[in-house]
Specification:
heterodimer; A: 286 residues; mainly alpha; MetI-like fold; 0% strand; disordered C terminus; B: 365 residues; 15 helices
């Protein structure tokens, strides 16, 4: 994508610090940073093998097993840390993929209009009208439970908002003078899209995507919670909580993975929020 | 994209614009309704088509899922099963047959429960509605209150705290809060009753609406009402947490937009008391986006019940959808999808029409 990098990154730098100067914002940024680092190096710094079973089942949190042990005697702390890689990387993948698919559909619908628009938007409406979790559930169940299929299922339900928003931006751009002058200069549709449309749509879409990371993590862990994502030995947060459901008197089993998901989602949501404030969508939207 | 179908899509197409055709005519409204109705039917057919395609074009084998692997290995059983549910016919024919039956409101048989899907839904819908209606009413009251307070205290500490609360509500996974609250209030403190809709042994009240609290009141059974309400409290509170966050954030935004307007300043300058300004001017001016949001929130609540219901063993739509989806019970899933689709589209339609009553400048037609 041909994005005029300087303009929006500079705007970002100028405006972010003010948001981040607030203690809560700084904290959120710090938490997100820690999780991303854990996502990269987590599995190599955990004290125990997250899959190693042990006879000491259901140990309460103590000085050796910081978060206690689970029903198979596995170290919960190691599992929670190892889970960061799975949840965060998959959530990022999902967001990028749904942003790309949604944007392509939105640009096509908005740019070509007429029947292309009609067909693509009705499709979008149908997916939007379908309850997200149920559609994702059906897809995941039909494809068979695996993490990759859960991402696919989540992808099917998460592109439409992008298509909607990008389309509406393209619609207003299409009437802008610089786009019409490009048309008058004899730009081909491809060239016009590449030069005039995509660069102007990219910024707000990226902001929208950053707001979506937390939700993506929630959806994926929810599918795993229902048993439609990660398979048992995998240290995935949602499936760890689901395992805690059958031993809910052992509070630590559910508490720590849940805290992990919550902090990740809160941190990313907060950052996305700050990004959106910084961008003031009205100013960006031409 | 979250588990509640997430951030509501606030970028919905704008409400029908002023048509410039002069005064609102009921003929115009009728024509508009007709067009929307046709669109709705097309969308619903689309929903069934999406489900049908998804469940058929993917590797999972519904027969194996419904019968279990052992039975699926026996060709005779599989053959009988396929015949019973019309699976031996080509796919397009199956689909057309489904649509044909749909005209008579026949949703087909569930493979799993061996009952008509419509009958299953009739049982599940009131249970879910009971949770969803309770949760949405609580959320609207709390959310709008929080939103209004945050908007009035913009930038101050109250605003920051409310922003944090609403972010927390939207970020914490519902299935986790559900388990935590169950552990705390049921297991540890013993103030909440266990899962399900009533304490085992308590007879269900005679069915009128299917919502136990309402039916118990109608039948005058006070103790049943208390029991049902106690069972209802935890699941609906858990759902409320999420929706309150959503409503607080977005109603704050809409209130802020209005508070900047000149007519609000003028009203204050006139010396009108704050309460009057809020109810007469601010609330009315901010009503349209808020109404849209409430509609979307309700739709997302319906699908958000899936996780909560499965934790509290609440025999509602969500549990039913989950069980049928994991068994690839095609017709049951299509039934649930259709129902939620109808609700979602109806809410949208009602809201679009309400726009015209709230704001006479908006004309449908």
């Amino acid at each position: 994508m041909d994005i005029p990098r300087r303009s929006w990154t500079r705007r970002l730098w100028r405006k972010i610090p003010r948001e981040m100067r607030m203690p809560v914002g700084a904290l959120a940024f710090f938490v997100a940073l820690v999780w991303v680092i854990l996502c990269i190096i987590g599995p190599s710094i955990v004290p125990f093998d997250p899959l190693a079973q042990n006879l000491q089942r259901f140990l309460e949190p103590n000085s050796v097993n910081w978060f206690g042990t689970d029903e198979l005697g596995r170290d919960l702390y190691s599992r929670v840390i190892a889970g960061a890689r799975i949840t965060i990387s998959l959530a990022l993948m999902l967001v990028v993929a749904s942003m790309l698919i949604g944007s392509i559909i939105g640009v096509l619908a908005g740019f070509f209009g007429r029947w292309v628009d009609e067909v693509l938007m009705r499709l979008t409406d149908i997916v939007l009208a379908f309850p997200t979790v149920i559609l994702a559930m059906v897809t995941a169940a039909a494809l068979g439970a695996s993490l990759f299929n859960a991402v696919l299922a989540a992808l099917i339900v998460s592109w439409p908002p992008y298509a909607r928003v990008v389309r509406s931006m393209v619609l207003s751009l299409r009437e802008a003078d610089f786009v019409s002058s490009g048309r008058l200069l004899g730009f081909s549709p491809m060239k016009s899209m590449r030069l005039d449309i995509v660069p102007n749509v990219a910024g707000p879409t990226l902001v929208m995507a950053s707001l979506d990371i937390g939700n993506a993590a929630l959806l994926l862990s929810g599918l795993s919670f229902l048993g439609l994502g990660a398979k048992p030995p995998t240290p995935e947060w949602g499936s760890m909580i689901s395992a805690a459901l059958s031993n809910f008197d052992k509070w630590w089993l559910g508490l720590f993975p849940g805290l992990a998901i919550s902090t990740v989602v809160i941190a990313f949501n907060f950052i996305g929020d700050a990004l959106r404030d910084a961008f003031d969508p009205e100013a960006v939207r031409v | 994209m979250s588990l509640h179908s997430g951030q509501p899509n606030t970028h919905q197409e704008p409400p029908p614009s002023p048509s410039g055709r002069g005064r609102r005519s009921y003929l115009g409204l009728l024509r508009y309704l007709g067009r929307r109705l046709i669109l709705t039917v097309i969308m619903l057919i689309g929903i069934t088509l999406v489900t049908f395609t998804l469940t058929n074009l993917v590797p999972g084998d519904p027969v194996a899922a419904a019968l279990g692997q052992r039975a699926a290995d026996d060709p005779a059983i599989v053959e009988r099963f396929r015949q019973e549910f019309g699976l031996d016919k080509p796919l397009p024919e199956q689909y057309i047959a489904y649509l044909g039956r749909l005209i008579h409101l026949d949703l087909g048989m569930s493979w799993q429960t061996r009952r008509p899907v419509a009958q299953d839904l009739e049982r599940a819908i009131p249970a879910t509605m009971e949770i969803a209606l309770t949760a949405i009413s609580m959320s609207v009251i709390i959310g709008l209150l929080f939103g209004a307070i945050a908007a009035h205290k913009r930038g101050r500490i109250t605003d920051q705290v409310l922003r944090l609360i609403s972010l927390l509500g939207m970020s914490v996974p519902t299935f986790w809060t559900a388990i935590l609250s169950f552990y705390l209030f049921y297991y540890r403190l013993g103030i909440a009753p266990g899962s399900g809709r009533l304490t085992p042994g308590t007879p269900a009240p005679p069915r009128v609406t299917g919502m136990y609290t309402l039916d118990a009141l109608l039948a005058g059974r006070w103790s049943t009402f208390v029991d049902a309400a106690a069972h209802l409290a935890l699941p609906s509170l858990v759902l409320t947490l999420f929706t309150v966050g959503l409503l607080t954030r977005f109603s704050r935004m809409s209130f802020l937009e209005v508070l900047d307007k000149d007519f609000i300043r003028a009203a204050h300058a006139k010396g009108l008391p704050n309460r009057t300004v809020f109810f007469r001017y601010t609330l009315r001016a901010a009503a349209i986006p808020i109404l849209t949001l409430i509609g979307l929130a309700f739709g997302s609540l319906l699908s958000g019940t899936v996780l909560v219901e499965s934790i509290f063993s609440w025999p509602g739509l969500g549990s039913y959808a989950y069980q049928s989806a994991s068994r690839l019970d095609l017709l049951a899933v299509m039934g649930v999808g259709l129902f939620v689709g109808v609700v979602y589209l109806t809410i949208n339609l009602v809201i679009d029409i309400l726009y015209g009553f709230i704001d006479p400048r908006v004309k449908v037609g």
